[in-house]
Amino acid sequence: MKNPEVSNVLVLGLARNVASTIQRDMLALQKALAGFKRTNFLILESDSNDSTLGVLEQLTKEVANFRYISMGELCDQIPNRIDRISYCRNKLLESANKYAEEVDFVVVVDLDGVNTKITRAAIESCWQRDDWEVCTANQEFNYYDIYALRHETLCPNDCWNEYHELRKARLHPMKARQISIYSRQIHIPQESAWIRVNSSFGGLAIYDSNSYFSSGYASRDSEGSLICEHVAFHQRIESSGGRIYINPKMINSSGIRKYSLKYKLFYGVKYSFSAIAPNLFVRRFGE
Asked: What pLDDT does residue 287 have?
C-alpha cells in the first residue's frame, strides 16, 4: 500500500443546505490531507435552498483543485431521501471516474459539520497498518452512525427495521429507539483495536481507489426495502474480498455526548413526550 506522501487522493462529498458548515469542514480537510502528494475535491450539490451554491462557487476560487456539480432540484423526481442520496452518490461516482487512473485513494465525506475535528495525524494513523481496503471514522465521545453500521454484535441488522418491528409490538417510541439505536451508540476509545465491520461510515471513509471504483450504491435491497446506501456499497466491496474497519484513532467529530447535562435533559424531555403522547411524538419526530 502506497504511503500518503507519494499518493494522490480524491475527496468526494454531497452538499445540500451546507452553507453554514462546508467552509469549516473544507478547512479541516485541507489541513488533514496536507500529507498527500495531490488532493482533488469534487462535490455534488442538489436541492439547496440556502446559499450553498454561492459558497461552492467561492470555494472554487479559494481551494486548489476544487470542483462542484449541481443537480438542481431532485426532490419531486426522487421524493425519498435515501433513494435521492443513493442516486446522487452514484452520479458523483460516475463523474469521479475520470480521476480513477490517477488517484490512489478516495475519501468520501459528509459536509454538514461532522468533519471539523479531523486532523492529519488522525488520517495518517490509517497507514499504521496496510491490511485494509476501507477505513472509516470514529468520534471523540459516542459513535453515532448506526444506520450505516453492520457488525455481528454491535449492529447485526438494520436499526430502523428493528425499530419498526418494536413499534409494531406496541413498544413506545423512545423505548424502541433506545433498544434499536441509542444503546448501540457506544464510546470507542482511541486506544482500542481496529474494529472489522461489514459496513460503517461515520461521516468520513477512506477507500483504496480500486475498491471504490469497482463498487456502486443502492438504496433498496433485493426485496425493494430501503437500506442505507453505504451498506449496499460495502457489501459489494466485501464480496470481492475487501476489508472494512473502523479506525478508533481517526476522530472526525465530537459525536454524541451521552453523559453531558444537555444530552440527558434532551433525552429526558423526548422520553417523557413519547410516553405521554406517543402519537404526537411520532408525528413530530417520525416513525
From this structure: 56
Q: Which residues are CB-neighbours of 35 under 8 A, at least 6 positions away? A: 4, 5, 120, 123, 124
> Cα(215)–Cα(224) distance, rounded to whole angstroms?
19
What's the pTM value of the predicted model, to 2 decimals? 0.92
Quote the cell numbers at residue 144: 453515532
For 49, the domain range is 4-146+185-256
User: Pairing mode, if any, of strands 134-139 and 38-45?
Assistant: unpaired
All three cell numbers of 102: 490517477
Whether residue 67 contacts residue 60, with contact meaning beta carbons closer than 8 Å, is answered with yes
Q: Residue holding cell 474480498?
A: 241
Cα dihedral angle (194, 196, 199, 200), rounded to 10 degrees?
-10
With H, G, I as helix, E, B as strand and everything else as coil, classify residue 32: helix
| pLDDT score, position 71 | 98
Q: Summarize pLDDT for 193-236 with one digit per residue, the tens.
A: 999 999 999 999 999 999 999 999 999 999 999 999 999 999 99
Band (pLDDT 50/70/90 cuts) for residue 257 is confident
Structural domain count of the chain = 1
- CATH number reported for the structural domain that contains residue 32 in this entry: 3.90.550.10
Contact 239, 170 (CB under 8 A): no
Q: How many CB atoms lie within 10 A of CB 43?
A: 24
Q: Between the CA of residue 280 and those of 140, 171, 272, what are the distances in Å? A: 34, 15, 12
